[in-house]
């Protein structure tokens, strides 16, 4: 089993019981997981692949996957910002797939 698949299975087993599912687009999910692995190698932690990390773990603590914005994003939109984690209803097509706006404060984005 390759590293992407191993991390996929590990994260799935941790997150699904909490009600967070991977996007059913497995190609997109594998690309995001690969990017998480790159960030872990680069920074020492898995920062969100859809956001620019500073390289300072404390500064980036809000965007270490799963980020602190995931829960409110999935609750409100059915998906997190990068569409890695979604609700079952989102995957089933029971709710619309709309743009998830950035919740990260402006001062954290520009470092």
Q: Can you walk through the features of this model?
A:
This protein has 111 residues and is mainly α. It has 5 helices and 2 strands, in the order αβααβαα. Strands 1-2 form a two-stranded antiparallel sheet. The protein starts with a helix and ends with a helix. 27% of the residues are buried.
Tell me the number of strands: 2
**CA-CA gap between termini:** 38 Å
What letter string, H or E per element, gives the SSE order?
Answer: HEHHEHH
Q: Which percent range fits the helix content?
A: 40-55%
Q: How many DSSP helices?
A: 5
How would you summarize this macromolecular structure in one to three sentences?
This protein has 111 residues and is mainly alpha-helical. It is 43% helix and 4% strand.
Features:
111 residues, mainly alpha, two-stranded antiparallel sheet, 2 strands, globular
């Amino acid at each position: 089993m390759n590293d992407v698949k191993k991390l996929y299975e590990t994260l799935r087993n941790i997150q699904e019981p909490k009600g967070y599912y991977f996007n059913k687009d497995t190609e997109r999910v594998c690309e995001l997981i690969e990017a998480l692995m790159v960030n872990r190698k680069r920074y020492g932690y898995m920062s969100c692949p859809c956001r620019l990390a500073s390289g300072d773990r404390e500064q980036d603590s809000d965007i270490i996957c799963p980020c602190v914005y995931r829960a409110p994003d999935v609750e409100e939109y059915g998906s997190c910002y990068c569409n890695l984690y979604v609700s079952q209803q989102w995957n089933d097509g029971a709710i619309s797939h709309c743009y998830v706006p950035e919740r990260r404060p402006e001062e954290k984005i520009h470092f």
